[in-house]
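Per your request, structure below.
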């Protein structure tokens, strides 16, 4: 448990981030904590790098909307001070708190306080002895560092442990966690360290974290981006929702990549719709499709969507066209219908559909196919399949 958030076992995979404010700035740190909670963070790490920071934690912890983990480097007494301040967890880096007696003293105090510890191994701060032995921050060295630290904690009967073995190189990060998962039963905290700014940092983080989650490895995650930490929390939450590990809490917008058949600027419409719908904070999947020929059918699994065609927008719910609106009103109509969909439900909105909308949509699809041709050659392909199935093809 990290405060009231369970980590590991059958608990939902949690999202973490870290504040970038000076911890001594209590109000500034709290403002960021509330922003992170609003963006989807379940747990937030806060640096405790000096006495002023520890004193700041004493004021921050009781007012925080999320459990606080104190990030400790070098000074074990700051870990003890953070525990006194009431934090829900500690992160210890084996590469810079080296003395066994200090580590065990922290573990005993954490046990008394009922506080968990993350053993946070980092390729960039690996123990010098291990670096010398292995020649580089290879997966075996990172896992050895974690096991060494865990042994100190277990020696004093401490087992409320989660572990990370972060690397900035994605394949090495993935291999490190795979190796660790084979050797321990503790919950694992996933992340690609020092991933960098978006979009590269997002791509690296998704590549590493998603790979492991889909293999059943990982219990809590953090995107380590060179960006506003709110972006970390949003990305982490979205990833879990897209992978099906958390229920959808916000917008999932899908859109066709556009092509020569598109009747509108799909990119522009998608961007406008994303801005408008994100402001509504509706937990639905929305599709923006560039043509009416295939759009509603291809995106029939979306809760709601709109397909453009010849100056009009075909608004559909679960693949069924319910309204046809002028092109210039597409985004506004989509937002209005999305609000009603969330408030009233799918069946009610389908029952309220314009009775003539589907017929009009069908007529326009037929007309467009006549003008543009069927790029998918559907009729021809269906005929060929029927011939093969009936044995009449050569």
């Amino acid at each position: 448990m990290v405060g009231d958030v369970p980590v590991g076992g059958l608990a939902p995979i949690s999202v973490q981030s870290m504040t970038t404010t000076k911890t001594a700035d209590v109000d500034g740190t709290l403002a960021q904590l509330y922003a992170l909670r609003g963006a989807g963070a379940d747990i937030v790490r806060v640096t405790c790098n000096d006495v002023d920071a520890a004193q700041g934690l004493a004021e921050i912890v009781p007012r925080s909307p999320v459990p606080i983990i104190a990030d400790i480097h070098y000074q074990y007494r700051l870990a003890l001070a953070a525990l006194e301040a009431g934090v829900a967890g500690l992160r210890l880096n084996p590469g810079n708190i080296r003395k066994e007696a200090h580590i065990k003293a922290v573990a005993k105090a954490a046990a008394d306080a009922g506080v968990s510890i993350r053993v946070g191994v980092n390729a960039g701060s690996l123990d010098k002895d291990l670096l010398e032995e292995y020649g580089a921050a290879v997966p075996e060295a990172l896992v050895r560092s974690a096991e060494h630290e865990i042994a100190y904690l277990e020696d004093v009967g401490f087992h409320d442990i989660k572990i990370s073995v972060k690397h900035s190189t994605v394949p090495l990060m993935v291999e490190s966690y795979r190796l660790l998962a084979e050797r321990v039963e503790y919950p694992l905290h996933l992340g690609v360290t020092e991933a960098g700014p978006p979009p590269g940092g997002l791509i690296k983080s998704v590549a590493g974290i998603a790979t492991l989650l889909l293999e059943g490895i990982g219990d809590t995650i953090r995107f380590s981006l060179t960006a506003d930490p709110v972006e970390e929390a949003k990305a982490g939450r979205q990833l879990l929702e897209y992978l099906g590990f958390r229920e959808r809490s916000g917008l999932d917008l899908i859109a066709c990549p556009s092509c020569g058949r598109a009747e509108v600027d799909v990119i522009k419409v998608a961007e406008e719709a994303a801005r408008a719908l994100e402001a509504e904070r509706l937990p639905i999947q929305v599709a923006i499709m560039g043509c009416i020929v295939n759009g509603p059918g291809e995106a029939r699994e979306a809760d709601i969507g709109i397909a453009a065609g010849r100056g009009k927008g075909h608004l559909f719910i679960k693949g069924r066209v319910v309204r046809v609106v002028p092109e210039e009103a597409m985004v506004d109509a989509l937002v209005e219908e999305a609000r009603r969909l969330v408030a009233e439900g799918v069946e009610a909105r389908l029952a309220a559909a314009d009775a003539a909308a589907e017929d009009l949509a069908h007529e326009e699809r037929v007309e467009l196919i006549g003008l543009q041709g069927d790029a998918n050659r559907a009729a021809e392909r269906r005929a060929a399949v029927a011939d093969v199935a009936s044995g009449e093809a050569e």
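The chain has two domains: 14-243, 252-378.

Regards,
D.
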